[in-house]
Structure formats: C-alpha cells, structure tokens
Amino acid sequence: MTKLRKVYLITAIVFLGVLAISPLKDYFSEWRAVQKNYNRYIKKLPQKVKPVPLVLKQIWVPKLNRIDRCITCHTGIDDGKLANAPLPFRSHSQIPHDFATFGCTICHKGQGLATNFHDAHLPSAFWEQPVLPARYIESSCGHCHINENLKLTPSLNRGRQEISELNCIGCHDLNGGYKKSFIPSLNGIGNKVVNRKWLTHWLKNPREIQPQTKMPNFKLSGKEVEILSDFLMSFRSYSNGENLDSLPEIYVKNKDKDDFITLGKTRFSEARCISCHAVEGKGGHLAPDLAKIASKATAAWIFNNIKNVHLLQPGVEMPQYGFSTKEIAAITAYMESEFVDRDTPTDTIAVHEPQANFFEQGIVLFNQYNCGGCHDLSSEKVSLNRGPDLTSIGSKKIYQIDFGTTDIPHTLYDYIDGKIRSPRTFGETTRMPEYQLNKADNQAITTVLLSWQKEPVPMEFVRTVPTPPKYDPQGKVGQIIKKYSCLKCHTINKTGGTIAPDLSVVGSQLQQKWVENYFKVPYSLRPVMEERMPNLFIAEDEIKTLTDYFFKFLISDNLSIEEGWDNSPEAIVRGQGLFREKYGCQSCHIVGGNGGYVGPPLDKTGNRLQPGWIYRWLLNPQKYKPETLEPRAGLSEAEAKDLTAYLMSLKSEK
Amino acid sequence: MRLIVLLFVLSLISCHENPHSGKAIQKEKDSLSAAITDSLIRNDPWLRYTYTERQGKELFEQYCVVCHGQGGEGDGFNAYNLNPKPHSLSDSTYMKVISSGTLTETISFGGKGVNKSVLMPAYQKTLDKTQISNVVVYIETFTRTKSNY
Description:
The complex is a heterodimer.
Chain A: H1 2-27, H2 30-43, E1 59-61, E2 66-68, H3 99-102, H4 105-108, H5 117-121, H6 138-144, H7 154-165, H8 189-192, H9 196-204, H10 206-209, H11 222-233, H12 249-254, H13 258-270, E3 278-279, E4 282-283, H14 299-307, H15 309-312, H16 325-338, H17 358-368, H18 412-421, H19 439-450, H20 475-483, H21 486-489, E5 491-492, E6 495-496, H22 506-509, H23 512-520, H24 540-553, H25 569-582, E7 590-591, E8 594-595, H26 605-608, H27 611-619, H28 621-624, H29 637-648
Antiparallel strand pairs in A: 1-2, 3-4, 5-6, 7-8
Helix pairs in contact in A: 6-19, 7-19, 9-11, 11-17, 13-16, 14-16, 18-19, 20-24, 23-24, 25-29, 27-29
Chain B: H1 2-15, H2 19-42, H3 51-68, H4 92-96, H5 100-113, H6 129-140
C-alpha cells in the first residue's frame, strides 16, 4: 500500500513540475525582461514617462492581414520624449502614417507574430524574410505608392530614374510604365567608325573610353570581341537604306586652313556645345564626351550628324542647329583637327581580313547578349532574348535563388544588391553585364526592385499618379519645337525636361521683345546652373512663329494685378527699402553690381518680366515652382506692389 | 507489443539522427544570423543619422548649403557675397550658447527676427513646423561628438 502511495506522490510531483514549465517559461520570457528593463530605464529619465504593464501587446490590421507584436518590446514607439532612447525603446520618427492603421511589418518586414528577438528579426527555417535594413526601407513605400515619387523617398526616386536611364526595360519586364530611352542605332556603324580597333576596344570595356557612358561591360572574351566587331562593321547603310551625304567641296578645299578651323571653333563655342557635351571631362554630362570623337567617327558622319541629326539618329535629344553648310563644314574641320586621340598609332589602320563565318557567329552573339534589346539593327535575323521578368522580384523565395560562388548572406536584398554589383559571380550561365554603379545608385536600384511584390496590397491602399496627357504641338510650331529639342530641357504643359524653366505660361511671364532678342543672343540668367541655353542659330521666321505662339497660347489669365499698381517714384523708393532693408533680397540677387549668385541678377528686370508675374511670384513663389529656393517671404499685397514697382524700374538705359 | 516498442525506439532515433550535422547546421545558422544582424544594426551607414535627421539633412541641402556650406561651416558658394558672412554652425563653442529655440526662431523669422543680419531670410511660410524642427535637429548633429548608435 505504501509503495503505491509513494508512486502516487512522485507522479504527482513530476506532474506538477511539468505543469509549471509553461508559466515559468512565460515568466522568464525575453519580452517580459525587456519590459521590466524599460520600466527601470524610464525611472532614470528627467521627464516623466508612464511605465508599461507587463503584458503582450499587438496591433491587428485585418485589411492588410497583419498581427504585429513588435510594440511589446518597442515600448516607446509613440512617445516623443524617447527620441534619443536606446533601441528598442526609442520612439518612431515622425512619418505620415499611423501605426494602428498600418502595423509594423507591412513596412519593416520580419515576423510580426514572433515574441523573441531572433524569430522576429532574423530568418529561420520557417520564415525567410528578415527585418529590412534601414537603407532599403523606402522600398516598402513603393508597395503602395507605385509610380508616385514622394519627397520623403529620395532613394526610391533615384532608383527609378536610374532604371529608366540604364534602360533595364531593354532586357527585363518591369513595373511602373518604363519606356525605352534613346540609344544609338547600330545601322551604318560600319560607315561611322573610323577604325575597327576603336570598336574592339569599346566592346572590351566601354567605360575605359567613355567613363560617363550608360553602356555596361559585357565581359566579352577576346574572340567574341573580334567576331562582334567584324559583324558590326559589316553594317554600312542606314535604316532607310541611305548612305551618308559625301563631304561638300568647301570642306575638302578648306579643311586645313587656319581661318576655316577658327570659324568652326567660334561656332562651336557660340552654340555652347559643351553645355551638354564634355570635352576631356569639362562641360555637361547629358551627351558623350567629344574629346576623342574624331578618332572614333568619320568626318563624313560628323558632318551629316550636325547637318541633320534627327535623320541620322531618330529619337536623339540633340537639337538641330540652324548652321549653314559652310559653318557645319568648318565645325567638322575644327573637330577633326582638335578632338583626336593622340595615342592612336596611325599605322594600325591596316586592311583587316574579317574572320570566316563572322556574320553567322556574330548574329548568334548579338542575340545571345540581347544587344537588340537596346540597339536597333536592321537585320531579319535579330531576335530578342530577354532576361528574367522582374515584376515580382521583391517576392522571390530564397530557395529559388542561385547564390553561385558568392559568400554574401542568403537574403533577398543582399542577392539583388550583389547581382547588380557583380552579376557574373552568380553562376556561369548568367549573361547580365556589369554596370559599375556607385554604392548609392546600387542601393537605390535594389530599393526599387524590392518594392515590386507578387501579392499587391489591397486596392484602397494603392496610390498611383495618373500620367498627364502628353503635350504634342502640331503644325509648324510642333516641327520647330521638335527640331530644336526644346522639350529636352524645358517643360510645357507637364511634358518635357526639368533642366530649364517651365514654359507653360511663358507668354504671361516675359516680354515678347526680350524673348526675341534672347533667341538671337542667349545669355546665362542663372549663373549657378551648369547647363546653359545654347545659341541654336534659329532662323528669323522661326523665332517669329515661336514667339507669336508663346504670347497667344502659352499664357495664363491669373497672372495679373487686377486692381492695378502704382509706379510712382514714392512706390519705387518704398520697394527699394523693402528689397534692401526688410527682406535682404540682395543676399541672393545682384542689383547694381552687388549681391548674391543664387537667383538671377535683377538688373534690367523691367525689360524682361511682366509686372503681373513679378507680383504673383513674390506673393507665393512655391505655388509656381515648388522646388525653388526662394522662400515665401509673406509679403502683404501692398508690399508686393511696391517691390514690383521697384523691380520694373530696373531697366537698361536705352 | 514488440511492434510498438520498435516504433518508439525508431522515433527516438529519428529525433536524434546524426547529431553531428545538426550542430554544423546550427553553426552555419548562427554565422548567418550574425551577418544579418550586423548588416541590420551595426554596419549600416544610414544609421549615422536618424530618420528625422535625414529629413533635416535633405532640407538643409536644398535650402541652406548655398550659403552655410555642406558641413555648415559657413562656406557655401554664395557666402562670399554676404556681409556679414554666415557663422560656422559646426563651431561647438559658438553653438553651445545657441539653444534649439533660438535656431528655430532664426529659421522661422530670419536674421531680422533675432536682431541679426537681414541677409538670412525667414522660412516660416516656406517650411512647416516639423520641417523646421527637422532642420534644427540636423544642424545640431554638426557639433555632436558621438553618435547615438
């Protein structure tokens, strides 16, 4: 009997012990220790912070299917007093979303239900998505703000721009409505390139010749380079079957004469070619460096390109200058004499025997590396051979990824980042070229790619910006605007570039006479800007057509002073006082020889601007140009009128 | 009965199968975790600044660097046109006596608002209160000796 009791007693104790495991485990859990730690920490603070009860807390967001227990340990998340507290107690920085509606893991990733550090933050056998590092956090903004570039997401915006500029759409399917950007056609390249050696050199490593180029390094073998060069050099005619116009007699006769070359040099600098093109690294970066162009392209090609750039390179952004044939020939002569690669050994221009079967082998290589994804080439045998679809790359599973010989951590973001940085380390079959981007650009592109998920967020969360209807002027005005590529730099009605001022209401801002003169002799209004308005040598009648159009159609009825304004000497003196003493405008603008260089000089404003525009602008500059540096001074209407009177009084003597 | 015992033994074995490789996996997992934790918390250059400071940095670089310079040293390209020139914001003895409140006031109401040069404009109507406070927070990082992290 006693034996049975003993057994009973022992069993009971063991049983109680087993039952106690669970509450004990709960009592000694990690999160409880963190909360106790927190309550101890806040006692030491000078400000009063409420202690937290020792319970598990969670945010439930049914619409997004999230249950996030992060706030159990991240206790001070919505308490501004804890902005400098150590992690995990620190308050969340101010963001436009509130935690109750969105939860945590929709942006930060990680495992929301987990209640210990390891499971919540790091990947495990059952959970492969770790918490997103801060450098990629903007990718989560992109889940909902699909094509919206927000002020708070600089990295995401930068990545989107890079993806568009690098023409990723040439090989990959992408989200976000990317369009193919301009890339030179390869038709006629056999007539363009002076020396086959240049092409082999280029194909080996384009960045070595042109550090700014968007063309990546395909890491071709020596043999592949030779075959591709032979293949490409065999394309000698242009897409429409035409050949280059031969050089005019005036060029052949005068090309070595000093005064002819000087004329070319003068036109080259007057037209401000270096606003877009660099010469040995000095100048703009919108177009290729011209320093060694004469060793790359033939004189005939250069001549034809300046003469009719849109015919030779359809879709190119370069304007069609209004030079005469003589001037074009002179510029060609100048470039031929100056922009030469002095290191090219002259004796290499020997006759080259193409390899056997170069065409068959060349087209195979051309298609294998999907050169046709970016470059046009008129050949029936060109076929597209695109890379993987990237539209849901942000949801790619770790087991689907081949990490190759790399030793990077097995996470999706490290994979994408590594793949963009050095694609060829991920297995031997990969064809992706190397882009040699800097760290920030690499990170920005990774951020964008991470934002493209398989399962979309519910429609009510999605934010897209409608694309505005494209401004496409017709008729003679349309032809002129296209000919001079105005919309490369200027915007009209939400279409065009952001390099130069928006011209949508230019007819209500400027004076017609000033615009007409400006076309003839453009000068730099904004010294800070790198790009300058080029002298396009526009014909007189074209200027007339354009300015008539500007001042009839590109106008606004809301840029006037309805009740009139007073331009009496007293008002002008009052305005000058406001300008100098009250608002200190001279810190950014030059008047009468002194002042700053941030904004345009304001001498001769009375010849340039319309009073209604000055008045409206002064009242609220950000309304017309949100990114302007000019602060909204908060002028009263009377003050704005006095300042307008003063600025309109600044005229040239004549 | 024998069958049950056999099954029990088998299941025990399967639970403890090959403890050697289990350890190796655990070790690999630990090193992976360490690498990820490292990239999450320590090695992230982004974490030099908090989110608020980054917002402030963005604004400072848009509006202020033309005069105050990239590092706040008063050496922006436009500074030499100004008289008086902007004072260095990274001078810790100077900044010690300037409270966050004074900085906020200077940005909001301009130099004139705090009896200083009229050449510093007022941003009260251009930036909202949060933006101004973000800029102040960023300016204060110029004289911060040690990062929080």
